[in-house]
C-alpha cells in the first residue's frame, strides 16, 4: 500500500511537470520574439489592462516547483530599467507611503538591502501600471482583506504579528525613502510580479521571466502591457490608513488623526517631495540620545507636519521625547542647553504610553496655533 502510494505520488508529480512544460511552451509562443521587439510595443489602444487575480499556487512540492521554475528561461537580449519615481503629496500621505513601502520590503525580503530594493521597485512599477491601484499603500495591501491570495503574502498570512528590530525597521524605511525619491533598482527592470523559487503560481508560465534576486524570481507581462509606455500612470498622492500597520507605524495608527495631531491641510502648505518631508527623521541626520530625539525641522514645511515627523521618528517606542528647531545654528548636540537655545525651540513632542500621554506643542511665536493649549509655555 505504501509503495503503491509512493508510485502514485511520483506519477502525479511527473504529470504535473508535463503540464507545466506544456504551459511553459504555450507561454513562450504567446510571448515569442526577441526581448527588444517585445518591450518596444505599446499597450493596444482602448484595451483594458490585464486582470490581477488573487494569487493561487500550483499544488507542487518545493523541489518540483524549483524544477519547473528552472525550466522557464530568462528573457534574452536585456530589458529596460524603470525610470526614477518621485512621490509628491502632502506630509501625511508621504509618511504613510514610506511606512507601507518599508513594511513591504522588510516583510517580503527580510533585512537584505538588494532584496528590499527589488521588492520596492515592483511596488512602484505596479503603482504606475494601469492594472493596479494608484497609491503605494493600495498596491501593497491589495487583497489583504482575504486570508489567502493577497498580492503580497505578508499582508494576509499573519507575518505582521512578528516584530522586526527597530534597527531593521529604520533600515527598511531608509530604502523606502530612497526609492520614493528617485532611486531605482534596474536589476529587475519593469517587473510587476515575483515569487520565491520554491513555489509556482499559475500565472508564472505566461509572463516574461526577467531576473532572480536571492530566492525571488521577477516577471513582467509580455507584449505591450510589459512595455515602458504602459508604466506612465501617475499615483494620486492619497494614501489610505492601513489598520494592519497600526502597531508598527504611528501614521497608520487608529486615532492618529482623531487626536488632532497629524492633520496637515492644504492651507498648511504645498504638496512636497517625500525626501524633503520624511528624510529628516532618519537617525543618521539627527541626534538620538536614548529615548530623546533632536530634530532639525524645515521652516518651509507646514507646522502641522511636525507631529508626523516626531511620531515616525519615535517609531514603536512606548516612551519618546522629541525636540525640534528650525534654525540649524541653534540645534543643540544634547539635552543640556542654554536659555537662548531653549527659547528658540520650535516644537516638542512627548509620548508616554504608561501614563496614557501623547502631547505636541509648538512655539507659537514662530507658528500660530488656534488652540492656546498647543503653545509652549514661555
TrEMBL record:
Keywords: Hydrolase. InterPro entries: Cell_wall_hydrolase_SleB, SleB_dom1. Transmembrane segments: none annotated. Residues 110-219 form the Cell wall hydrolase SleB domain. GO terms for molecular function: hydrolase activity. The keyword Endoplasmic reticulum does not apply. It holds the Pfam family Hydrolase_2. This is Cell wall hydrolase. The lineage of its organism: Bacteria, Pseudomonadati, Pseudomonadota, Alphaproteobacteria, Sphingomonadales.
Amino acid at each position: 500500500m505504501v509503495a503503491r502510494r509512493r508510485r502514485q505520488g511520483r506519477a502525479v508529480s511527473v504529470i504535473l511537470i508535463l503540464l507545466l512544460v506544456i504551459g511553459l511552451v504555450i507561454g513562450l509562443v504567446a510571448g515569442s520574439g526577441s526581448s527588444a521587439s517585445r518591450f518596444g510595443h505599446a499597450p493596444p489602444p482602448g484595451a483594458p489592462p490585464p486582470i490581477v487575480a488573487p494569487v493561487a499556487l500550483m499544488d507542487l512540492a518545493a523541489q518540483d516547483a524549483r524544477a519547473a521554475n528552472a525550466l522557464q528561461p530568462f528573457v534574452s537580449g536585456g530589458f529596460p530599467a524603470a525610470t526614477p519615481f518621485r512621490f509628491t503629496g502632502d506630509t501625511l500621505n508621504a509618511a504613510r507611503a514610506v511606512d507601507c513601502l518599508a513594511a513591504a520590503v522588510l516583510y517580503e525580503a527580510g533585512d537584505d538591502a538588494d532584496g528590499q530594493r527589488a521588492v520596492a521597485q515592483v511596488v512602484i512599477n505596479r503603482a504606475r501600471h494601469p492594472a493596479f491601484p494608484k497609491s503605494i499603500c493600495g498596491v501593497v495591501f491589495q487583497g489583504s482583506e482575504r486570508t489567502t491570495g493577497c498580492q503580497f503574502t505578508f499582508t494576509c498570512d499573519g507575518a505582521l504579528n512578528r516584530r522586526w528590530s527597530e534597527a531593521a525597521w529604520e533600515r527598511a524605511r531608509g530604502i523606502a525613502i530612497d526609492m520614493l525619491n528617485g532611486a531605482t533598482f534596474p536589476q529587475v527592470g519593469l517587473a510587476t510580479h515575483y515569487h520565491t523559487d520554491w513555489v509556482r503560481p499559475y500565472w508564472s508560465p505566461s509572463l516574461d521571466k526577467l531576473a532572480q534576486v536571492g530566492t525571488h524570481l521577477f516577471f513582467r507581462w509580455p507584449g505591450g502591457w510589459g512595455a515602458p509606455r504602459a508604466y506612465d500612470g501617475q499615483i494620486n498622492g492619497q494614501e489610505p490608513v492601513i489598520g494592519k500597520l497600526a502597531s508598527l507605524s504611528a501614521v497608520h495608527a487608529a486615532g492618529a488623526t482623531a487626536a488632532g495631531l497629524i492633520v496637515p491641510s492644504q492651507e498648511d502648505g504645498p504638496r512636497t517631495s517625500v525626501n524633503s518631508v520624511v528624510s529628516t527623521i532618519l537617525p543618521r541626520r539627527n541626534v538620538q540620545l536614548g529615548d530623546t530625539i533632536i530634530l532639525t525641522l524645515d521652516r518651509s514645511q507646514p507646522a502641522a507636519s511636525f507631529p508626523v515627523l516626531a511620531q515616525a521618528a519615535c517609531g514603536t517606542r512606548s516612551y519618546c521625547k522629541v525636540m525640534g528647531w528650525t534654525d540649524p545654528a541653534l540645534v543643540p548636540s544634547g539635552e543640556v542647553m542654554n536659555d537662548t537655545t531653549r527659547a528658540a525651540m520650535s516644537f516638542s513632542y512627548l509620548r508616554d504610553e504608561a501614563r496614557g500621554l501623547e502631547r505636541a506643542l509648538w512655539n507659537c511665536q514662530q507658528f500660530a496655533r488656534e488652540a492656546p493649549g498647543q503653545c509652549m509655555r514661555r
